[in-house]
Design a protein that fits this description.
Oligomer: single chain
Distance between the termini: 36 Å
Largest sheet: 5 strands, mixed
Structural class: alpha/beta
Number of helices: 2
Helix content: 25-40%
Length: 138
């Protein structure tokens, strides 16, 4: 896959990320399997409702890259060809501790499951299946 930006008379190697182009759609063309797909990329700090609005003519996709973590409601994105990338929120200390605890539990469950996975005992196979379900829920 390759891409180019700008108009045919002024092509760039990549989209430009400068302060004066924040919130400004930049036209790009992505080549995929021999087809050129016109689209646009928007770099922004905060979500604006028009980012999720209908695409202009001859634009097949829009990629919105937000620099600040925030919630974007699915209802604000009206077209399936609009992609929104948001940084993950920073974990609080409590969240990080809880995540670490869950990761330790999952590691223990995986270890136990592996021990019982080779058994031919029906009861132990049931335990292994239950452990697998518990891990997938974590």
């Amino acid at each position: 896959m390759a891409y180019r930006t700008g108009s045919p008379s002024h092509e760039l190697d990549s989209p430009v990320l400068t302060r004066d182009l924040i919130d400004t759609p930049q036209r790009v063309t992505v080549s995929l399997h021999g087809f050129d797909i016109p689209g646009e990329i928007i770099f922004a700090d905060l979500w604006q409702p028009w980012f999720g609005a209908e695409l202009p003519e001859q634009v097949m996709f829009r990629l919105v890259l937000l620099s600040l973590s925030q919630r974007v409601d699915r209802a604000d994105v009206t077209d399936r060809s609009i992609i929104v990338a948001v940084p993950a929120p920073e974990l609080t200390k409590r969240d990080a501790e809880r995540l670490s605890q869950v990761q330790r539990e999952v590691a223990r469950l995986n270890e136990i499951r592996e021990r019982y996975l080779v058994s031919t005992d029906t009861g132990l196979r049931h335990l292994s299946t239950s452990l697998t379900q518990k891990v997938s829920e974590a």
